[in-house]
Amino acid sequence: MSPERFEADYLIETPVDPRRAAEVMAGEQSSGTFVSVPGETPELKARAAARIEALTELEAVDEPSLPGAIRPVGQGYRRARVTLSWPIANIGPSLPNLMATVAGNLSELQQFSGLRVLDVRLPAAFAAAYPGPKFGISGTRSLTGVMDRPLIGTIIKPSVGFSPEETAATVQVLAEAGIDFIKDDELQADGPACPFEDRVRAVMRVINAHADRTGKKVMFAFNLTDEVDAMRAKHDFVLAQGGTSVMASLNSVGLAGMIALGRHTQLPIHAHRNGWGYLSRAPLLGWSYIAWHKFWRLAGADHMHCNGLQNKFSESDDSVIASAKGCLTPLFDEKPCLTMPVFSSGQTAHQPAETFRRLGSMDLIYAAGGGILAHPDGPAAGVTSLREAWAAAMAGIPATEYAKTHPALKRALDPR
Amino acid sequence: MSPERFEADYLIETPVDPRRAAEVMAGEQSSGTFVSVPGETPELKARAAARIEALTELEAVDEPSLPGAIRPVGQGYRRARVTLSWPIANIGPSLPNLMATVAGNLSELQQFSGLRVLDVRLPAAFAAAYPGPKFGISGTRSLTGVMDRPLIGTIIKPSVGFSPEETAATVQVLAEAGIDFIKDDELQADGPACPFEDRVRAVMRVINAHADRTGKKVMFAFNLTDEVDAMRAKHDFVLAQGGTSVMASLNSVGLAGMIALGRHTQLPIHAHRNGWGYLSRAPLLGWSYIAWHKFWRLAGADHMHCNGLQNKFSESDDSVIASAKGCLTPLFDEKPCLTMPVFSSGQTAHQPAETFRRLGSMDLIYAAGGGILAHPDGPAAGVTSLREAWAAAMAGIPATEYAKTHPALKRALDPR
Description:
Two copies of one chain form a homodimer. By secondary structure, chain A is an alpha/beta fold. Chain A has two domains: 5-129, RuBisCO large subunit, N-terminal domain (Alpha-Beta Plaits), CATH 3.30.70; 136-413, Alpha-Beta Barrel (TIM Barrel), CATH 3.20.20.110. Chain A has helices spanning 18-28, 42-48, 95-103, 124-129, 136-144, 164-176, 196-214, 228-240, 250-264, 276-280, 289-299, 317-327, 352-359, 370-373, 379-395, 399-403, 407-413, and strands at 5-14, 51-61, 77-87, 114-121, 151-155, 181-183, 219-223, 245-249, 269-272, 285-287, 303-305, 340-343, 365-367. Chain A has an eight-stranded parallel β-barrel, surrounded by seven helices. In chain A, helix 6 packs parallel to helix 7, helix 11 packs parallel to helix 12 (317-327) and helix 15 (379-395) packs across helix 17. The longest helix of chain A has 19 residues, at 196-214. Chain A is globular, with a radius of gyration of 24 Å. Chain A starts with a strand and ends with a helix. At the A-B interface, helix 2, helix 3, helix 8, helix 9 and helix 10 of A face helix 2, helix 3, helix 8, helix 9 and helix 10 of B.
């Protein structure tokens, strides 16, 4: 790939010839327009036009995946995989403008009954322009002291409704249970029922006292989703209270908000992808996580949500593993920007074996709710059972076998 | 509606009983969870839980609109319209956290084979917390001096590839043609091939000189899409050069970015919705414009893109008119937050009659590309023909009739 160009891959479905459809994509997203205009000279096209780098035709289908396309010319709706490239001189290494370029008006075009962004590849200029994750996997491990296994995490539940003091009391229970990581639910932000600063103060009092007593500092990701200047101020408050992580909802703050936080932060950013469903669930529309998550990693996300195997959502296990592997794949040779994938949603002692087998890594946060709090012997046994399930997985020992000598795991797998 | 609660309407499609599905929505997005936890007391639910305010069952379908749902229990996939409400105490009047609450994890749930946000209704606390459009319709009219008809606008084409001087030369032609409004294409931002400040300087030299000579100041919306602090600086630069508008791509900057710009701005913000296709084109997923556009209006959007009748995109005319009417409908009694709808995409002298008939308003920006530059008698005749088409539309005179005494319109309608 040229260091002067960036690329994007798409899955398209089109009622016209796929080559012609790809030309429309390239034109619409660079120097072309529907009526030819005087200024569009061959020289201008040479310096500014998008190029079709590859096109592989796939199957055709009889029914369009999305409404609004023109009628097919005869061969149904033809699918293809297309790669376009653009000169970086068009936009410079700018993530917000990259987003408008690779995914702007494209999916509204009548020439498509389906269009999904599959991947983007960026030249080194982007690596130089953005911070990327300042902590990532190694920084998160240093701050938590957890070096040789996944971080065991959980989410404060009920999601909303707790006062700061009730939140802190739950944190106390979880800290005593041996938890490594806790996050606010994405619904818990800074409402009058549980103000941010009061919550941080109450929770950090518990966490700091526990750390003084035991030497183990629980990482708590405080949800500071808000306006930009408020997020910076909230970050500073968490830092001042001795906190070690902040959380932001990516689709709520947006890319400019996340970049501002990424540049400002002195703490790992736990990036929550709520809203991901509306960006991804129609198979021939929106974004693959592989493409989408790169924007946020480069902007500074240290932890990124990937769902989990056998989750309570609609995502398949294959998709979960592909997303998590994406997080663990370097973005650039000189600046890998590795981010820690977060497994959550219905995670228990049952999934670590397959998760480790398929992911091939222990570099993740394994977050469970019921898997901890609903353990018949209490939260400490819940946390222990998850650690044991991971120890078994990493040792290649079946969980049921390992459970014979590990009662917490045994009770988690078979609570009767 | 209670001043202490906010509401959202949804179109859902579900394999389970719609009432049960609505309960899952309310639980997932407030105090509920999949495993019951100790802290979820009746008192906590009373203060924090979402409520089902209305549920109207619609048709059932045999095939799911989206993959990933659980199998239906027997009656196929049942559609319904659902209204939920939440206590504002959960999040306070915060737009970013509102987005996570009304649209966060919902569309990923297995209980749904379709889920679309149709509308949101906000209590007055939100009106007090955000600036809304600082200029809107009246401010835009004051700055342009266009009082009694739509603004006639256009977009610099080719979208990218022009140098600052070439851009300014095009602006010169358009200003002399009598244009009211010009915008950068959303692909033109701040790349090394056309740096922002150089472009602003070159364009404003032309616009200011034209204003000095004629008394008419063309409004140019400079695309400042970027990081937050850079957008503020670019705004200040445009202001200092005598510019009268800035443009931002909403899905590129995101909500926190737009709020920051909305609070900072002393110029009308031209809000570009590129990317809207991936948020809306699957009928049972994503957002209706009616719900989505309210976030950006409240954040400060003065102009909002709505597509146009018989556009080159996949959107239907009914949807275009509904969106534009949304922009012209007050958000709050005391703070209407009216925003000027922008009609564009394939607009010519042919559509004003139906646009005016269906919209019932002249408060819009009518942007045309080929409709101006491709007029057989040149750009001035192009602009004149569009003004004439609107004059005819507003007078209730058929364009072909009006054209008999208006040669520019005549040639636009029949260029032979």
